[in-house]
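INFO  loader      accepted 1 record
INFO  loader      residues=252
INFO  predictor   begin
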Amino acid sequence: MPLRALSDPDHLPALDRRYALDRPALGLGAGDPPPRILLLYGSLRERSFSRLCVEEAARLLQFFGCETRIFDPSTLPLPDQVTGDDHLAVHELRELSMWSEGHVWCSPERHGQITGIMKLQVDHLPLSMGGMRPTQGRTLAVMQVSAGSQSFNSVNTLRVLGRWMRMVTIPNQSSVAKAFAEFDESDRMKPSAYYDRIVDVMEELVRFTVLLRPHTTQLVDRYSERKEADVPIDSATDLSSIATSPTYRKGE
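INFO  predictor   done
INFO  writer      dumping tokens
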């Protein structure tokens, strides 16, 4: 699998554990099995700051009790380059998305927008795939890194993409300005307000993922898809039909 190995997953030098909840979603729903989070980044540079931010996010998510996988996009073909998308990296990306309950997307800002590498990965995730939906109903956290002053162009675009992919994009987000100055010589993020925001975003992602877990099927149930698949409502078992029936209302 084209996955990035995560070094020192338990080492969190910028996190002040006195203020960190190890289970931020406690009481919101079942935390077992661990929430499954797929992380995507948008640069192939040897020292990619979007990748480094994603790795910091993955460490935090593991600290919060999640299972994480970081996809390596370096072998992905261009969209429509391979007939029928029959390429190992494309298959594995889609399988990882099917495995996941939530995503983290982090892109550099380049020419005021997300990078082609970031969009490439989203373009390889279809809305529907053999009756399965690789992104629909999953939670999403968006982040960006910038070489200069703080900007929100990339996260705004990622939000548009998340909505288009029918994902539940959480309210919080992270934008790291002058990212080259935020990492030490060991490629670990320094303590800062930017790091603290990433902690906030990952906490919120875990909460939304756990909170929505029991309701995902209902939240993505659509009239148009039931009609297309010719799946009529069974009034004997459908709770909404039962609740609005005259018999039920007489018993109120």
